[in-house]
Design goal:
It is built from five helices and two strands. By secondary structure, the chain is mainly alpha-helical.
Length: about 80
């Protein structure tokens, strides 16, 4: 199951997703995981596995909403482990 599938099934809430994205962007060096049922998604691993997110977060002049969308996309495409 991916984060997106969990989101559609309401196993991943907007609040949990927003909190994890905010925590990751505040300090990417700190571990952030989103609990999804019996599994979880490691936000940093999701970002690193998604080339677009890596590119956006590494680019200068990117707005906050662009950063949030890149991380959110990575999380929604990540597998729940």
């Amino acid at each position: 199951m991916t984060g997106g599938e969990a989101y559609k099934q309401k196993l991943l809430t907007d609040d949990a997703l927003d909190a994890a994205i905010s925590a990751y962007l505040a300090d990417p060096s700190k571990p952030v995981a989103i609990k999804v049922g019996k599994g979880s998604i490691d936000v940093a691993a999701a970002v690193l596995a998604h080339p677009y997110a890596v590119e956006v977060l590494g680019r200068e002049g990117v707005t906050g909403p662009q950063q949030r969308n890149a991380v959110k996309t990575a999380v929604l495409l990540a597998s729940v482990g």
